[in-house]
Amino acid sequence: MTRPLIQYFLALVLAPLLPGIINRVKAFFGGRRGVPILQLYFDLYKLVHKTPVYSRTTTWLFRAGPVIGLAAMLCVLALLPFGGRPSFLSFEGDLILLVYLLGVARLATVLAALDTGSSFEGMGASREVQFAVFAEPAFFLALAALARGGGGLSLSGIFSNLTPAAWLTASPVLTLVTASLFIVFLAENSRVPVDDPNTHLELTMIHEVMVLDHSGPDLAFIFYGAALKLWALGSLIACVILPRHYGSWLVDSGAFILAMFFIAAAVGVVESVMGRLRLLKVPYLLMTALTFSILALIFQAGR
Amino acid sequence: MTTLAELIIVAVILLNLSLAASGSLATCIRLAAAQGVIAALLPLLAGHGVPSGTIVFCCAVILLKGAIFPWLLTRARVKANVSRDAEPVIGYPASIILCLGAFAASSWLGTRLPLPETARVAWIVPASLSTIFTGFLLLTTRGKAITQVLGYLVIENGIYIFGLALFVEQPLMVEMAILLDVFVAVFVMGITIFHISREFDHIDTAELSQLGDWYPKQSGGEK
Predict the structure, then answer these.
(1) Domains of chain B, residue spans
(2) Which of A169, A176, A294 is closest, CB to CB, to B10?
(3) What is the pLDDT of residues B65-109, one digit of tens each?
(4) Which residues 163-202 of A are in CB contact (within 8 Å) with B?
(5) Does the model's pTM come out above 0.80?
(6) ipTM here
(7) Which residue from A168, A176, A302 is facing B107, i.e. has the nearest CB?
(8) CB A289 within 8 A of CB A180
(9) Distance between CA A269 and CA A22 in Å, rounded?
């Protein structure tokens, strides 16, 4: 019982490291030294000690947004397996809850953004929801394709069922699922081909523009929730590409954390070598992910 | 080996989808060529002992589909001076959805179709049927004469893959004859496209809907 809890707290503690790694890789490609790798921890510490400022036009929805978002992410993380080891909250059908928890977090953020009455935030909310229309089915169908491979409807069951032998027999399906999950991962975390986290022009932002009016601890909740989301979706990919389990808990966990860092570095490389897509082209990218998922599901179903 | 063949099948299907989704003619030509080359690798992987005749045959197919066809088509495209894109009648998302639907339908059909017990790799029949469908889609919904040739080539790719499911031994003579036919067809069509474009200053098939000999009779003799 203690080990799943340790896994959970490890994820909570290590998650803010991922944006730091991404920034460091981007800085390396740009020939800079970059911000410290622990920068997000400093930011969170600073923000928590600030007094939030609330606009007079906002209501309780605006204050509830970050809290609900963070709470949903904490629940998501509790469902996820860690390096093939089951989580302490896993049950049959938890992958459906996972998708809905991500949806609740999105809804809370969007409502909070709309509550401010700013037209820019409304635009950001509109884009976020529009892209989610494509990203959510892709994500869900990719999980369905994995579930179809055995292990039932529980994430822990699916990933403990995923062995190197599965990669030998079902590599087309797993390749398609990995590609689809990676695109969804980039889109959901508003990384580069979809959204640029560095941009500070309200017209082009998607996620960043929705949180413009948040400050203090609320902003810290949002940053921390985003880091947890990065960890959560990344850990799904890590579980797929890292099917080998050595039996020792320490080695498995170490390999899993290394895989997470590797995925963060991969995101950094993607952000360094390509620019963001035109907003009109983003649905095409997400449709590609959806196509991959549907193909994987068809292949898995006919297997 | 079977897994590798399945990966190739997946690549063929993904190429189908990207053919349905890509807008530029040059990309379409390259994609169709890549599909032909990848499909030509299949007979080398599907069996255990590969006879030397098959290897020669595959090399011929790769040379023809990977080098000569794209070269002919690119030459026709450049000579016909086509600057604009493929101009589909239906949108790209609709094309992708149609392709996916075709793949789903053909995987259902693949389970129903009685085949000899020679299909060594699963998914050959669905992949070939959906490739043929993609070829028809290119033929019917794209408005340029070059895409008609491309659609024809994609259909040929599909038929080639289908042939792998049906025959234990590659009947070399039959396949060679088909290849020769396709080669001559692409050659002739390349020349035709060039002549069409020189005659009419465009290769838009939507405007090539009436035969010149019929036209005066139709308009004059409307009784």
Answers:
(1) 2-207
(2) A176
(3) 888 888 888 888 887 776 566 677 788 888 888 998 998 898 888
(4) 168-169, 171-172, 175-176
(5) yes
(6) 0.76
(7) A302
(8) yes
(9) 8
